[in-house]
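Lesson 9: reading folded outputs for more than one chain in a single document. The general rule is that every protein is listed as its sequence immediately followed by its structure tokens, and records are never interleaved. Here is the first one.
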Amino acid sequence: MIFISPKAKQSFFFLIKILIVGGAFYFIYNQLANNDKLDWQKFLILFHKNYSFGGIAFILLLSVLNRFFEILKWQNLVSYLHPILLPEATKQVLGALTAGLFTPNGVGEYAGKALFFKKAKAKTVIFLNLICNGIQMILSVVFGLFGLLYFNVNYNIITPKTVLILFGICSLLFGILFFSKKVNIKGYSIQKLIHKINEIPKSIHRKNIFLAVCRYLTFSHQYYFLFLAFDVDLPYFTLMATIASVYFLASSLPTFQFLDFAVKGSVAVYFFGILGVNEWIVVFISTLMWFLNVVLPVIIGSYYVMNFKVLTPTLSKEEGDAT
């Protein structure tokens, strides 16, 4: 058996933290500096024409609220294990966000949050994070489908026959899931998953749904107000339906957090192109949304990653307590 001294472990863990933070900042810089679709000259002209301190403060406030609602969601869900304070929930959410920056669809975020808890609670923490992200995905699907239908009624990009086929496929999938809920795959089944979800108090679920709706409305309206700031004059429901469609379709595609704006941007360019919005405006707004809602939280999360300490039995008296 190979013995590794505590000092060597510390050095190795410090190197991992440096790689995570250094990699995060490298990818952020690379995406902003080497994106040839970003016309900074046009942006600066429009910025000087329309900017106001109140407008900037309002957009930044929406970014803070977006992440704040996510932190409250996590604090609420973790209360199923034990109560944690808001600063602790902030540390866990932002630290995990930074750790999950390089993983497909933020999968690393699950492991990142689990590290703040004892090993015995890891599966429960991952399950709670699944519920935390799952409700957000469900809302994206629900709002997105309504958005797509509204958009399609006005711009007819999909024929009624195609809509019926898609509806039939969705109904078939739901039917298969319903009738196969007792089927076990390696000890797991949909029925068992539903049972575990029902073990969590309904009050926690209700609060989780409420906070998820608040978060969805916050970042979708931030997108909306940025289009207004860039002189895009379109009806409210048309803009919101398009935004909902973009988030739904972009969220369905496997991607990495650091490429999030590129994926959403490419989907947004197609939809907003139909509305006659200039491509450079769409790309810039998608990039700004990524910067405000991913880059800024990752910068703060980097501080928590660098100050993270491995949980040991001596750090907590109660099993499962966070550091």
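And here is the second record, again sequence then tokens.
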Amino acid sequence: MAYDFKKEFKSLYAPAARPTIVDIPEMTFVMADGKGDPNTSAEYSNAVGALYGFSYTVKMSKMGGNTPDGYFDFVVPPLEGLWSVEGEENAPTFIDKSRFEWTSMLRVPDFVTEDIFERFKGILAVKKPELDLSVIRLEKFTEGLCGQITHIGPYDGEPPTIASLEHFIEESGYRTEISGMRRHHEIYLGDPRKVSPEKLKTIIRHPIVRKSCLEQ
């Protein structure tokens, strides 16, 4: 059977409904950065297409005799996104999406090295010349300590869920600290093209640090 990250790392991809504290280890991702409203941005659409195109090109290499060293079959993990708002350090609001800055990403197996990344990006470029693959990169990302919660419903309905997460983080003796790559993080467990908005499931993570004695 294909290796399924969601089943092997249930605490990361299938958390309980209540908020929890998790320590996220180093993982390998293919990523793309951009700006703007994901609902209308051609840049976002291209990025998502490039990410999935790359991941499925690696996955399906088993069919063409071009499998890389260390290959094993895998289920392509869910799409993830790191979000912020231009000029702000807090979690993003949903008022003016045109100011969004995002990093979209898909987890890939650790056998995907830089050499393999470049090789399969080249294969994908031949298959999908309409995609701009210059936007994607391979990166190892250690997110570290986070508070996380599952949001059920439309993306624009996240603020109350985020407020619940922030309350839990505060009550647990931590505070959210967004900086660099450690940002508001969403993992999309449902496909909005196939699932009604009220049934969408999204994991929301915020990077945290323990509060000092002075803060408490």
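What the second record shows: The mean pLDDT is 92.
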